[in-house]
Amino acid sequence: MTEHEQQAILTICLMAAFADGKKDEREREQIKRIAEGLGEETRINISSLYQDVLLKRRTLDDAVADLSTPEARQLAYEMAVCVCDADGVNTEAEVAFLERLRSALGLDAQAATAFASEAAEIAEYSFETETEPLPAVADKPRANTAELDKMILNTAILNGALELLPQSLSSMAILPLQMKMVYKVGKAYGFELDRGHIKDFAATLGIGLTGQYVEQMGRKLLGGILKKVGGGLLGGLGSAATGSAFSFATTYALGQVAKEYYASGRSISMDQLKQIFSSLLEQGKAMQSNYAGEIQQRASTVDTRQIAGLIRGA
User: Fold this and answer.
1) The dihedral of CA 261, 265, 271, 272: what is its sign?
2) Helix (H) or strand (E) holding 272
């Protein structure tokens, strides 16, 4: 994939991120930070792309015109769908944007709808009704803490594995898995959480769902690992490892900080939580190499045709 095509796809992803017109300043700042961070890893000035999109200096047709191959056009659509779905059910504005994009890309409507439906199934997964809660801490304090730690670590390993896979939907699955993990932690401490609370909790820590997906897919795109040849992973293994470490550490830190927060009866201030999360994130990064073999092994067993089922069974 050429640099122009990479730039065009990232532009379309940023357009998708702002398609609903409802991103608050906190989310905008996170996406800007991500754009700047990804820009340091490539010759593409992604921060400039961010400004072009925000100020509407670049149009959708401009970006589409730079996509010369069917594969690049299909990938652009898939990534845009997942960016729109990352924070939940699509708004009317997002649906309209995706249809304009599909038409501009010249994609088959039936195939595009099938992919969008699969992504929506992942995004709309109802963990509240399907998750079996862990025993309450008041009943089994020691056993429960160990079970929570095991669940958090297993989720971090699975998310690290998903980041090694080249399919767009594999990264999409990381977000609901993180939400399901936080839900189970809260449930274990007697708190009934919903999507809105979990999204706000993560956003307070600097983990916006839309921004996180943009970062994950940006790494894959720039690393050249978004290639589908026999379902295999080709090239860009260094970037794949970086993305995997990022997803492992973020998931681990999110789970552990949730455990501290709900164990305290939600008495820890948000400023304190941010400091704790920052420390746990560094701890997660340091730990990741110890589990690299397990992450690689888990990646080899994932059936990418059953991503939605994977979330239900996690």
Assistant:
1) negative
2) helix 270-288
Q: What is the pLDDT of residues 127-176, one digit of tens each?
A: 666 656 555 555 544 437 889 999 999 999 999 999 888 787 888 888 88
**Integer distance in angstroms from the first to the last C-alpha of the chain?**
34
Q: Cα(27)–Cα(71) distance, rounded to whole angstroms?
A: 30
Rounded Cα distance between 60 and 100, Å, is 9
Backbone dihedral angles phi then psi of residue 232, each to the nearest 5 degrees: -90, 170
Mean pLDDT over all residues of the chain?
Answer: 84
**Residue 220 one-letter amino acid:** K
CA 110 to chain centre: 26
CA atoms of 46 and 64, how far apart (whole Å)? 17
d(CA 119, CA 308): 9
213 token code pair? 């997906």
Encode 23-75 in three state secondary structure.
CCHHHHHHHHHHHHHHHCCCCCCHHHHHHHHHCCCCCHHHHHHCCCCHHHHHH
